[in-house]
């Protein structure tokens, strides 16, 4: 069974969830152990906080550390993702990042709690709440799991909600390289066209001035678009950040009338060629776990989940 020294580590729990025809029914849960007492254990999972009474625990064990990325790898990827999606209003709380972009997207309007906030955790979260209150915005925190599990547990205690889990996925860039050009071609530009911006506005619910900063204020960025007979069919955005090693893929979008033509794959492969030419070795993207078609597409291209995060929202 588990011991107190297992707190803070990833564990898998097999719990008894019912009885059928005299036999127990089991369910497995995987997450960060944040509390262990004589009466219950508490996990932070990709779906949120889970408290399991000890009477329901059939078996529990620590997951070997080799099965998950190191904390340093999670931090490096989160910082590369932040550089690829830069909020115009920024501040620091120790190592933590505070970000605002007129409410445009959760990523650009949330605190990123990686590293040391230079104060006790409750005081750090109080400061986060004050910072967003001064801006007139709801406080939000992105919690990479399992790295930020203690932050998530404190937010649970404060009654914060959570948006759906997001998968942060990666793949070696060599896996994505295009083997031949396609027709119609994918055009890569250093600045987004009006048509490109219109697609982004439709997907993200408007396009304030801060959004244009998020999209363009990256040293190495390209905007992909596919036209046929003067009509825009697909778009995408690529950035190279993380000491020029990581290609970030965002806003991969195919217009509804152009689905099932392989355009998303061609946009991704064209951006991969561009990133590789700059020296990038790996690609990453973020996709909601519930977006089954997108998850299936990325799986077919070789992407695997590096870690997950939850966007936590103040009550």
TrEMBL record:
Q: Which InterPro entries match?
A: Acyl_CoA_acyltransferase, GNAT_dom, Rv0428c-like_C
Question: Is Transferase tagged as a keyword?
Answer: yes
State the species of origin.
Answer: Micromonospora rubida
- Cite the entry's keywords alphabetically: Acyltransferase, Transferase
* Domain annotation N-acetyltransferase: ranges: 186-315
This protein's name:
GNAT family N-acetyltransferase
A molecular function annotated in GO for this UniProt entry is:
acyltransferase activity
Q: Its Enzyme Commission number?
A: 2.3.1.-
């Amino acid at each position: 069974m588990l011991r107190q020294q297992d707190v803070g580590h990833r564990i898998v729990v097999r719990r008894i969830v019912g009885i059928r025809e005299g036999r127990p029914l089991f369910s497995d849960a995987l997450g960060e152990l944040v509390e262990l007492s004589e009466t219950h254990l508490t996990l932070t999972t990709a779906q949120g906080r889970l408290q399991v009474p000890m009477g329901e625990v059939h078996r529990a064990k620590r997951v070997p550390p080799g099965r998950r990325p190191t904390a340093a790898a999670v931090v490096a990827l989160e910082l590369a993702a932040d550089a690829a999606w830069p909020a115009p209003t920024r501040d620091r709380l120790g190592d933590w990042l505070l970000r605002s972009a007129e409410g445009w997207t959760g990523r650009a309007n949330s605190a990123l709690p990686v590293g040391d906030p230079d104060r006790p955790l409750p005081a750090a979260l109080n400061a986060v709440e004050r910072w967003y209150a001064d801006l007139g915005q709801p406080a939000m925190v992105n919690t990479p799991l399992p790295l930020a599990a203690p932050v998530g547990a404190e937010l649970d205690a404060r009654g914060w909600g959570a948006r759906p889990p997001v998968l942060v996925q990666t793949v070696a860039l060599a896996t994505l390289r295009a083997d031949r050009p396609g027709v119609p071609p994918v055009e890569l530009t250093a600045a987004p066209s009006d048509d490109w911006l219109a697609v982004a506005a439709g997907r993200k619910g408007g396009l304030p001035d801060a959004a244009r900063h998020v999209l363009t204020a990256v040293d190495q960025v390209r905007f992909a678009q596919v036209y046929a007979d003067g009509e825009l069919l697909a778009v995408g955005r690529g950035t190279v950040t993380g000491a020029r090693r990581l290609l970030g893929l965002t806003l991969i979008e195919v217009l509804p009338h152009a689905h099932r033509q392989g355009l998303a794959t061609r946009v991704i492969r064209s951006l991969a060629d561009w990133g590789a030419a700059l020296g990038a070795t790996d690609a990453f993207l973020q996709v909601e776990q519930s977006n089954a078609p997108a998850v299936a597409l990325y799986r077919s291209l070789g992407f695997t989940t590096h870690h997950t995060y939850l966007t936590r929202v103040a009550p």
